[in-house]
Amino acid sequence: MKKLLLTLFLVITSWVNAQTTKPISFTPDLSNPKFEKGKWTGELNAGGMLLAITLNLFKYPIESPELKYQAKLDVPLQGVRNYAASSVKVKSRSIYVSFDGFGAQFEGELKNGEIQGKWTQSKYSIPLTLTYGSAPELKRPQTPKTPFNYVSRTVHFSNQKGTVRFEGTLTHPQSDSIKNFPTAVLFTGSGLQDRDESFVGHKPFAVIAHHLTQNGFAVLRVDDRCAGRSVCAPGSNNFTTQELIDDDGYSYARWALDSICGNQPLFLIGHSEGGALAAGVNLKLKSAGVANQIYSIGLAPALVSGFEINAYQNRLVFGKVVSDSLVLNDLEYLHRGIISSMLEQGTFENFDSLKVVKIIETELKLVSKKSRNMANKSFKKNAGIPLKSSLIQSYTNPKLTSAWFKEFLKFNPGELWFELNEGLILQGGMDKQVPAFLNNRALGKHAESLMHVDRPTTLTYTEFQGLNHLFQPCKTGDVGEYAQIETTIDELVLTELSAWMKNRMN
């Protein structure tokens, strides 16, 4: 799930799909040969997540004053390999490398065998020290490796509006035909993601598809619009969750029904925000009179509004700066007030940073003077910036103007699940992106409402203790742990998933 950025989070997920940059230029300093060749690696602290970054410096194959050397970037946890720098300049013991494709630069100076410097992106600078050598190989033992004992095919189809040409992978048990298989369709979480839902070296959807296919199911997983190898028309990357349900998600399901299922059941499986698609597309298919049995499965889906999820996540961010629980409560109320006022005053439709600043100032006055002073001291000490400045920096972030974020705040996926009133929901007990206690509270209210209308439910909920949002065994559930954990998905979750699906086949 996405959240307000109150600390230094980098826009690194966009690197994977960034286009090739213009030809590089390089001005070498031959008195400093180590700048000009080999791999230099360091760790970047991106919002609490440590990312290994490698700059590979080497000679350009064409002997030319302007094209003599080049640099390429690797960020293994983000799947970035050999991303060409836009320019590389060396002067004396200093080096400057820029990447125009995602607006980043590295500046450093050679000291004691290290390149000590800073990484700058989106106006934020973070210390980065590079040492000579390569980053360690990532260990992801669950990622499927060929050869497979099943069929894996590349498939293509378009969305309902004809603005996106999707590419995906269909896996199914050995057969001369792809018809008449019970079929699972996978929906990724928020943001533009590839068909494997790749993140920090993990490929959760590839792992799920591998497990389910070995258990007799066909599985369709697809690159999101404008991600991976899916191609989209200009402007198609601006969308809301409801639009994904009505267009993309429905298109996935229709293609699966027409091309694979035959008369077999269809299972719609969504992770995080994708859980809204798993429920919403099911309702849409049922209203269209589809005859197949259709089942929805949510993997850590939100059952409350995006406003509530955002408030919880923002409290976690504040909690990294402020330790006093009473002050933290006041900051949460402050955040709720700012976002509510921004919604009421229409600042998401017509973004005006001056209006946002006035909202912040108004809401700050409602916080007790004692809490303001304590929070301000904590922000200066732990974040290096006054409270008010941090708030202005965060709430005037242009990313808040996206159609997705505004609708995310208002949208409540729980309403879809409770209207559907059937299916399977799996939840990690230590999930800090979609917390279990919020979902449990929503499920309790739903169960109470059913008592008054004598309406039965077949909605099944299973919570796995000790697992995070990705269903990894973890210590804290923090996002920063994801990269350090070798397990992609706990085997108990995979077993529960396939067992529930097989029981629907009886």
Structure notes:
It is globular, with a radius of gyration of 25 Å. The longest helix is centred in the middle third of the chain and has 21 residues, at 241-261. The two termini are 35 Å apart. It contains 12 helices and 19 strands. It has a 10-stranded mixed β-sheet, with no helix packed on it. Strands 11, 12, 13, 14, 15, 16, 17, 18 and 19 form a 9-stranded mixed β-sheet that branches. Helix 5 crosses helix 7 (369-382) and helix 6 (353-365) crosses helix 8. By secondary structure, the protein is of the alpha/beta class.
Produce the secondary structure layout.
Blueprint: E1 25-27, E2 38-46, E3 49-59, E4 69-75, E5 80-84, E6 87-91, E7 94-99, E8 104-111, E9 114-121, E10 124-132, E11 151-158, E12 164-172, E13 183-187, H1 204-214, E14 218-222, E15 231-232, H2 241-261, E16 266-271, H3 274-287, E17 294-299, H4 306-319, H5 325-344, H6 353-365, H7 369-382, H8 387-395, H9 403-410, H10 413-420, E18 422-428, H11 436-453, E19 458-464, H12 491-505
Parallel strand pairs: 1-6, 13-14, 13-16, 16-17, 17-18, 18-19
Antiparallel strand pairs: 2-3, 2-10, 3-4, 4-5, 6-7, 7-8, 8-9, 9-10, 11-12, 12-14, 12-15
Helix pairs in contact: 2-3, 3-10, 4-5, 4-9, 5-6, 5-7, 6-8
Q: Can you tag this structure with a few keywords?
A:
single chain; about 500 residues; alpha/beta; Lipocalin; Rossmann fold; 3 domains; ten-stranded mixed beta sheet; nine-stranded mixed beta sheet; 19 strands; disordered N terminus
